Amino acid sequence: MRVSNKLKEKIIKFFDNLFHDSRTNNDNKYMEKSTEFDDWLINNNYIKNISNDNSLINLVPTQKLLFLNFNNCENLINDFIIQFSNYENMTTFSILKKRFEFYYDKLRDNFGKILQEENQIFICPYCQRNYIGIFNNKDATKGYTAPDLDHFYLKSKYPFLAVTISNLIPSCLVCNQRIKGTKDTYEKSIPNPLEENIFEKIEFDFNYIEFNNDKLPYINSIYISNMKDLDDNYKEYIKFFKIQEQYSLHSEIPKNIKRKFDKYNIVKKNHLKKCCSSLNDKIIEDMVFQEYKYIDKKTTPLWKLKQDIYKKMKNETT
Fold this sequence. Notes:
mainly alpha
């Protein structure tokens, strides 16, 4: 996710205050012990502390770590693994995890809602299929309910990225908890959908039998037609998030578009134009297929499927 300069200032001020307050309140338990990981964090070129004081108390997330460019997240993981090849078996790794889980909870509770609203994310970036949104909920602790704020690179394995905002993705329950879960996107080289226009690369198609017993178009299957032409990392993404399987559930999309094309055929269009001389083919098409022709990609679930199927059927009818 991106962060405006105004919001950056608020986040920096918040963590500066946390850094100051933690010297005296109960939160300082997360910064009591020094570990081999701390030295790496303090001296790493990507997130090196601005302060000249290299004491452990300065391990409150620095500006560089909070606002680290996503491209450098992978570099940071690479460096971490080189330095600590057996890190998950090191006894002090749990200290690092607890510290950054604490920082993440603070960031999520105080800025999660603002970050999502600022980035205008309304549908799940992983699947582009499910709505995600924030709604008022008087029974919730904060008075609202927000979608999952997923760590693209797992905070359980790479806890130092737990508060790196470019590593956070608001997502739906299906993608985050049911599909992604604890799978490692770093090991599988999965691209980040907020960094790459993955669905712009995918092309959906379908097969259908003309009618079923109810005289309605019967959709036989929905599939990704250009799978073999995609780059390997996109193929891995599709497999990882089960895009083919998720989209195959939505046979109603081509079915509904097909019914509209059948209903508003050339005979129907000519009849409408006779009834109203101001109508022409384009105006009629815009009225009937507006939701498919002028799709808002930010707010329309399944937008790529709708767009591709509409274009295919239009080409078939012209």
